[in-house]
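Journal club prep — side note

Before the paper discussion, L.F. wants everyone to see what a predicted structure for a comparable chain looks like in token form. Sequence:
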Amino acid sequence: MIKAEELETLEAELIKSVIEAREECGLTQGQLSEICGVQQPLISRLENSVHPPTVRTINRVLRPLGYKLAVVKDEAIALRVESAPGS
């Protein structure tokens, strides 16, 4: 079972990856929200760790940026944001 502190670290790394993906695409939170079809405050809450993001929300934000969420099996459970094929 994953420990609480590991989960917090995983969430923080995932949120950092989402922010980096948005910035690499040169988008503001408002522009990203329009592309994803969500309201800008949702992007802000996600990036500021107000609520833990769901996998569904993360995917909804990452897909239009050309990224996907990947599960990586190694010594511990990990998630990775990577470029989607064809991006």
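L.F.'s comment for the group: The chain has a mean pLDDT of 83. Keep this in mind when we get to the figures.
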